[in-house]
Amino acid sequence: MTTPCPVCGGREARGLIRLERRALVRCRRCHVVYLDPPRSADDVRDYYEDLYVDPAASGRIDAGRNRLFLDSLEALRARGHRRLLDVGCGTGEFIELARARGWDAAGVEVSREAVQTARQRGLAVELRSERDEAEASLPFADGSFDVVTLWNVIEFFQRPDAELREVHRVLTPGGRIVVRTQNALFHLMAGRTHRLIKRWPALGAVTRNTFVFHPVLWSRRTLGAALGRIGFVDVVIVNSAPTAGDPYGALARRWEPLVQGVKRTVYGIAQVAATASAGRVLLASSMTAVARKP
C-alpha cells in the first residue's frame, strides 16, 4: 500500500521512478511528488546534524546561495519590510548578511549544531524541538515578521500544510512568504535521463549530480495550490536563478567553469520557455515563490 501523501493524505499514487530502497510517486489527488516510503523525522534531523558538523561543507553551500537569496529580497525591503524570519537558517550566514543590508533578521533551525554555531556568532536563532516539529509550531507570536523565507526547506517538511499555516500565523498582515525549492519537472527529467544513459559510465558520471530527490518534489502547480490553500494571495512563482558553480563540491574544481556554463545555458532556455508560456512552464532546476498574507 502506498504511504499516505504528506500534503493531502491521499493513498492512491502513481509510481514514477524506482530507487534502491524507495520509489518516487505522484499523488493522484493533489499531484505532489513524494518519496514512498518517506524518510523519518530522525533521518532528516540527522542529515542536517551531519551537514553542520562540517563547517567547511556548510559554508561552501551557503556561500553559493546566500547572495542570490538576498538579491530576491531587495524589492521587499524597498517596500518597508524589515522584520525577517529564516526558517531552516542553518548556521546563520544568511541572517548575518541580511542584517548587514538593514534587515532585523532572526532564524529557526532543527540542528543543535547549527543553532549553537549561530548563537556563538551573536545571532538570534531558535531551536525547533521535537515537540515543535510534531506540532508544526514556530516559537513566535502571531504577526511577528514582515517576511518569512524558506530557502530549500519546504521539500523536507513532514506536514507541509501545517508548517505553512504556522508561517502564515507569524506573518503580519500584508507580509510575504518567500520559498525556494527544487522544481519537480526538471529533476524528474534529469533523473530519467540519467537512468537511460548510465550504462555508459562516462555519461552516467556527468549526469548523476544533475538531479536530487528530496522527500517532497514540488511543481509550479502543486506549490501554488498549497500556498493558496493556506490563504496566501498574489502568488507568483518563477524560475530561480542558479547558484554559482557546484556548491556541494561533488566535482573537481577544474570542472567549475563547465558546470557554471551548463547552468547558465539551462537557465537561459528555462527563461525563454517561461516567457513563451506566460510563466506557466518552468524548466529551471529550482523555482522561487513569493506570496502575500492578506
How does this structure look, described?
The protein has 294 residues and is α/β, with parallel strands linked by helices. It is 41% helix and 22% strand. The strands form two sheets. It has a seven-stranded mixed beta sheet with strand order 6-5-4-7-8-11-10, with helices on both faces. 35% of the residues are buried.
Features:
single chain; 294 residues; alpha/beta; Rossmann fold; seven-stranded mixed sheet; four-stranded antiparallel sheet; 22% strand; globular
Count the helices. How many?
11
- CATH topology name, in short, is Rossmann fold
- Content-based structural category: alpha/beta
CATH superfamily: Vaccinia Virus protein VP39
Helix content: 40-55%
Number of domains: 1
What shape does the CA trace take? Answer: globular
* β-sheet strand percentage: 15-25%
Structure described in brief:
This protein has 294 residues and is an alpha/beta fold.
